[in-house]
Each structure stands twice: as C-alpha cells, then as structure tokens.
Recover the amino acids of this structure.
C-alpha cells in the first residue's frame, strides 16, 4: 500500500480495530508478564514494540505482535535458571538475532509445510480455549491471569476444574457486565443496519464504557456487587508519577551474561518456539484475511527478530505474532497494518497518561470481548465446512483441536501435522510444477500430482506474479491435487482481477 492508502484505511476503520486490539492486548501484556515472573513494564514494553515497530516491518497487513502466552513457561523457567531478568534480556536479544538470520536465509518457508487442516484446527481450538479460559473472568473469578492458555495450570487446576471452581463464588456485578458486553457485541452489526451512525464507532469501546458505567453505578446502588474495591477484578496498570519514573523503571540487559552458556541454549529455545508461533500465526492470519492476501514469511521473521532485539534492549519480554490479537483485529474490521500500529500507540498513551482511568475497567468487559472473538474463531460452521471436505481433512483437524485444547498449542500443531503427513505418506503422492515466462504471459505447469508440501513454493510463485500478467495454469497431468493447493489457486483467482491479472485454469 502507498502512504495515502494507509491513511485512508486508518480513517475508514483501522482506528476502530486498533482500539479493540488495544483493549485485548492491555491485560494480556500485564498478565503474561506477571505469569512469567517479569516486571509488569516488561510486558507493556513488549506490547509497545510489537505494536509499533513490528507492525510496520511485518510481512502481514493484519498480524499483530506482542508477548505471547505460549512463552510464559519458557520465560519463567529461563529467568529462574539464570537468576537474573537483565541476564534473560541478553537471551532475548540473541534470539532476535537468530530470527533475523533465519529471515535472511529465507527459512520462513517452513511455515508452509503445515497443512491447512491443522491451521484451521489450531484456529478453532484457540477459539475454544479462549471461551473456556474467559468463562471464569466473565463471572468474576480472576485468580488466574486473563491471558492464560495452558490446560494444566500453575495452581493445580486445569481448564475444566477452573470453570467448575469459578461457579462456587459468582460475582453478580461481573456477570452483569459481561452479559451486557456480549449483548452489545452480538447485536452491534444488526443495530448498525438501523442506526448507521453506529457503524462509525467501535463496538468494543462501547462495551468498555458500559462496563465502567455499570460498575460505578453498582458502587452506589449495591456495594456487594461493586468490583472496584478489589484490584483482582480490574485492569491493574502500574501508575507512574512522571515520564522520568517510567524511564527509571526500564531494565537494561546485563552483558556479563554473554559468558554464561545457559544464555545461548535459552536463546535458541526462544528463537525456535517464537519462530514457529509467528509463522503459524501468519498462516492462520492469512487464512482469516477477507482479502486473501499472501504475506511474506521471510519478511515476518526479519520483523519478529528486529522486534525481539529492540524489546530486549528496552527491557521487554520476547515477542511473537499472536493469533488472539490478530483475529481480534480482523473481526473488528482491520484492513491494514495501521490498526496494529495504532494499538501500539495506544499502549504508549496508556502507560504514560491514562493508567488511573484505565484501571477503572473491569476485567469482565474485556472477557466479553475475548468471548466474542473465541466464538467467531470456533463458529460451528467451521466444523461443518471441514467435515464436508472429507475424512482426510477432518481427522487431522479434529486431532489438532483436541490436543491444543487438552495440552497446549505447540503439541497440537506437532501431532496434527504428523497425522496430516501420515495421510500424505499413505497416499504416496508427489508433485512438481514449473513456471514458464514469456513477457507478460506466464505458464504454471503441473508435471505430476501435487500435495500440500508444495504449497509454500506455489504460494511464493503466485505472490511474485506481477500485475498485468496473463497466467495459464495447466494441471492436466495432475491426477491428484491436494485440497490446500486447490484452495490456494482459488484464492489467487478470486483476487487476481483486482491486480489486473488474467487467470485460466485447465484441469484433467
């Protein structure tokens, strides 16, 4: 996009989605820092760097980065092993350098080796996990941080026992606030058809305003239902007296830890996990993108690596692309990277100018926003779609969903991918395609059968096709064409006309 197009996109709606992402990201940054055993400012700094710097450098228009819940155990263990948070920051910087190197070596293609059934299963599973994890917060049980996503919890509970425990002591005030928030979110689009002025305003902002208003009203109407007398139920931003105090709160890396071998093993672990999470989030974000844009994974690695270097230098937590923030961005109407950038600016404003006011926001209103996002991700129609595509798609899909919900994200991706690969091995298919160019005429010829293993190379070839080209795809020799390839070609054909590209597909 040109600069003028970004400005137009921001004015048309990116600012609204930026607010929604900000409201979701704020407690996540604080909660992840708390769970990691790091200073709260470290979580906020990571969110700011991920929102401002990484959004501008990213290979995606819609991906939003920040501290990730999937790294909390790794970070907490690493800080404990090193016995020093400044020492851990050195590992974050080295991890960033590794990611930059991977980007320069064009290693982003590894993200394309994950089948679409697994990616779709991951999205649905994350939606289910969000719903399950937010139910306690929606009814006022805020003992665990709002960004927790592991099945087995540090307090000995798990996702399901936590829900059961939370119903023992329901906070009526929280329940009212979350229900009102959900009503607003689910009815906003329909109401916008009757009252057009509502389309110009973000629903998430009204959810927060309603939540604050209800809670303050309860203070005078029914004090037992009032949530503001306990920081456990509210956004809890650190309050700084001045900008100088914020500056003093920043922690610098302790470079003496460069001589500690543990730093390098931690850095490699962080780099591997953060890279996988970012690339998978990128794939998932592309699949959710209404415009079906194809992002550059290599550029994404360069952006993530740069973000981790800067975050480590400024005393922040490690950064990844985060599907919760990215999906919230998409479902709130985000169209360009300006929404992610704006959310980062809002985090800066929150830290410097508005902590007192933001601390009046009940976590229950933010839980309702996340519940709505979870519902959109795990919509029942997604199960119907996958089931209609046959057992070779829904078996890896279901396996991924079950393992992500019952264990964690990375294990779900790993086992789901193994199942997907097993189907490929069983069917024993392989493929090769060739690209021929003659001026503006381009021929993509499939020589043999094609599977999802060639998705990344085909995606890269399609991405490089210049505007104004005439493309002929000859698939007559492909007796089998994997669902992922069909889906990729159809997405390319649906957007080609906008780029002035003519496409002709011939199958056997």
């Amino acid at each position: 996009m040109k600069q003028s197009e970004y400005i137009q996109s921001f004015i048309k709606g990116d600012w609204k989605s930026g607010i929604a992402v900000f409201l979701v990201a704020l407690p996540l940054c604080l909660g992840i820092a708390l769970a990691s055993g790091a200073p709260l400012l470290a979580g906020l700094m990571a969110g700011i760097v991920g929102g401002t710097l990484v959004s501008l450098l990213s290979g995606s228009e819609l991906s939003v980065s920040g501290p990730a819940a999937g790294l909390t155990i790794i970070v907490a263990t690493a800080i404990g092993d090193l016995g020093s948070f400044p020492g851990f920051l050195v590992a974050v910087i080295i991890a960033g350098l590794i990611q930059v190197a991977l980007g320069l070596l064009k290693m982003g293609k590894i993200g394309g080796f994950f089948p679409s059934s697994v990616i779709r299963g991951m999205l649905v599973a994350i939606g289910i996990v969000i719903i399950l994890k937010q139910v306690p917060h929606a009814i006022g049980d805020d003992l665990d941080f709002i960004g927790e996503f592991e099945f087995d919890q540090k307090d000995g509970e798990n996702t399901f026992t936590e829900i059961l425990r939370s119903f023992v002591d329901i906070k009526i005030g929280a329940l009212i606030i979350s229900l009102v928030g959900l009503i607003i979110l689910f009815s906003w689009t329909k109401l916008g058809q009757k009252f057009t002025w509502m389309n110009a305003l973000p629903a998430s902002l009204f959810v927060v305003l309603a939540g604050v208003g209800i809670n303050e009203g309860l203070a005078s109407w029914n004090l037992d239902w009032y949530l503001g007398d306990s920081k456990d139920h509210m956004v809890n931003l650190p309050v700084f007296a001045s900008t100088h105090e914020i500056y003093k709160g920043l922690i610098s890396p302790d470079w003496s830890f460069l001589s500690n071998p543990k730093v390098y093993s931690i850095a490699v672990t962080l780099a591997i996990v953060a890279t996988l999470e970012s690339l998978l989030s990128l794939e998932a974000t592309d699949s959710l993108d209404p415009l079906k844009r194809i992002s550059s994974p290599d550029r994404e690695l360069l952006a993530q690596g740069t973000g981790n270097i800067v975050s480590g230098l400024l005393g922040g937590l490690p950064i990844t692309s985060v599907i919760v923030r990215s999906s919230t961005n998409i479902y709130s109407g985000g169209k360009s990277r300006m929404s992610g950038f704006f959310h980062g600016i809002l985090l800066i404003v929150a830290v410097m100018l508005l902590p007192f006011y933001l601390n009046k926001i009940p976590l229950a209103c933010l839980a309702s926003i996340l519940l709505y996002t979870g519902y959109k991700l795990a919509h029942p129609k997604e199960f119907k779609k996958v089931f209609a595509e046959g057992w070779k798609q829904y078996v890896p899909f279901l396996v991924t969903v079950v393992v992500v919900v019952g264990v964690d994200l990375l294990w779900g991706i790993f086992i789901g991918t193994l199942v997907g690969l097993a189907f490929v091995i069983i069917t024993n298919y392989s493929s090769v395609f060739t690209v021929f160019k003659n001026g503006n005429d381009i021929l993509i010829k499939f020589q043999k059968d094609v599977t999802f293993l060639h998705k990344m190379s085909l995606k890269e070839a399609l991405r490089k096709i210049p505007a104004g080209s005439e493309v002929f795809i000859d698939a007559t020799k492909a007796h089998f064409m994997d669902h992922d390839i069909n889906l990729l070609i159809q997405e390319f054909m649906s957007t080609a006309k906008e780029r002035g590209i003519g496409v002709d597909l011939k199958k056997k």
